[in-house]
Amino acid sequence: MKFGTKAIHAGIEPDPSTGAIMTPIYQTSTYVQKSPGDHKGYEYSRTHNPTRTQLQNALAALENGKHGLCFASGMAAIDAVIKMLVPGDEVISTNDLYGGSYRIFTKIFQNYGIKFHFVNMADLGKVEALVNKNTKMIWVETPTNPLLNIIDIKGCAEIAKKHDLILVADNTFATPYLQTPLDLGADIVMHSLTKYMGGHSDVVMGALIMKSDELRERLAFIQNACGGTPGPQDCFLVLRGLKTLHLRMERHCQNGRKIAEYLRSHAKVEKVFWPGFEDHNNHKVAKEQMNDFGGMISFVLKGDKVEDATHVLEKLKFFALAESLGGVESLCGHPATMTHASIPREDRMKAGLSDSLIRLSVGVEDAEDLIADLEQAIG
Ligand SMILES: *Cc1c(COP(=O)(O)O)cnc(C)c1O
User: How far is the CA of 379 from the centre of ligand 1 (A)?
Assistant: First the structure.
């Protein structure tokens, strides 16, 4: 089955009790049993809910996995994965990780005796050099935020297999429309469904997808024991969003390409970060593991002044100044003062996060209007 057909049909059954074609919102906490232990597979909604089950099945199908598990947020999904580890265990991850992932690793789980290493994962030699007898997991995020670096998932999977480590891939930026990490050897795919998967900036939710029955068992146990589960209304919204994932992503990619090229030709723009450019550091890997290059773009202004970036961000009309990404509407942000403000300036500059760096989440509006908006704002 091809992707568009899968987005609409896979994992979804008409409602067994009524035939409803759209999964109903099962707004219930509990389920009546005929006699003790004699039930229809549902006992309590922290453990199972029919609306959530359908979403979990749809996600498993889209990522070419076997099982899906949904959580109240992307962070709750990450939380469940790290809870598989015990004190003394070590994790290797990338040095330009999503800020919230970095925060939960270093400010929460480090206190529980789990050790995290952050390296430039574009260099796989550096990843393997950190493996020791305590290493249990490699955590990959690609493309990265906000510099759109690309990490070789297959290369990481080879290292993980060789040393018997669990490879987790945060697939939030790419979505399964662009890349399917389980096919490249990852063990677990993690999503913030809040972004492209939900796609309409109206819900916060997360998910894990895997092939292994054993990993599913361990993670479902944690999901139920710790309780970071989503409500059925939110599951319905993501189910609805998924049905147009392929249409939205196609337009995000088309608009992304047009805007990346426009910005690159602009006299006041110093540099544009977009993995579709042939001279992007890891364009070759991006081309191999992704079907297209997405709608996330970052750029730096000539002169690199905060005031100039602020001026552009204030003048933009269709690009709303807001956190988050992946919705149908275009958004813009300033990492130095918004998402990455907690990083000391010196460290920020070292990581390539310049003062005037602007991040765009290109929406699905008409590219001509978006380009005209950038034209009037940059001048
Ligand atoms: C947003 C995001 C998360 C966290 O997800 P929430 O749904 O906000 O909890 C994790 N990883 C990436 C790459 C994200 O963009």
Answer: 33
